[in-house]
Amino acid sequence: MAHLGVADLAGLAHAAYGRDLRDATRLHGGSKKGVYRLTLDDGTTGIAYVWRASEDYWPEHEHDPLFGNASGRDLFLTAHTALSEAGASVPRLVLVDSDVIVVEDLGGEFLEKLLDHDPEPLDRLWDDLRAMHQRLSPRYGRPSALQPADAPPVPDLILQRALKHLDECCARVPRIATERDRLETQLRQRHSVIQPRTRYGLIHGELGPDHVLVADGRPVLIDIEGTMFFDVEWEHVFLELRFGPHYRPVAGLDPARLDLYRLAQHLSLVEGPLRLLDGDFPHRDAMRDIAEQNTERVLAQISR
Asked: In terms of pTM, does the model score above 0.85?
């Protein structure tokens, strides 16, 4: 996949900063959008998010209306507003264009590099998350496109999504295929004991320590397009997985939802990386590792 260069982004840089562009570097990580560091002729920098088909590594796939389109300028702007209103820090907007947004460059210090020796940013992040999760809506979905009142309950949605992921995992991973019946039984049993709910908290949706920059001790959320009102247990299962020993449990979470969502997310983290590898995503070993680790987690769920 060919990436953008100085000639492609010079006009954008001039519109954002009124200066000439000296260098443009695509940063590691983006699979649905291109993330470029813009270096201007005076040495200052900015970050450009580019949503174009040429920047999207994901192969064509059946559309998932809630999870499958967590990318795009409009979703970013909606999430930026919702998170800011909830008290979380997000990068300052510099320029908004049709398929590009330029934001301030906060440097490359990610929270994952600080977890073992600087607790303050993590303390502040957990405060921000508490405020986000306490920002409630009577319906779930994107802040600008909440689902109708008669939409299926979140646990029903997650069950159906997990069953599809199970089918796709069975087609790719023989060890999971061998346990298909037991895994489906586990999903349905965990779903069957969940009680109804009518309030949903604001979540980031994919919050690992690699999606938090630290600037002046302040945690700043990035890759925010997946932000929505949802069961906060969905977020906590991902936090538990990604933060490991640094995860901080909170009171009041529903154990039944946590049980279902753990297995559902592990299946998703097998299916998604393997599907991404059908295309030309460059960081292939990392995706294989994620799929292999979550295969082990899936199988561990049926031997508890």
From this structure: yes
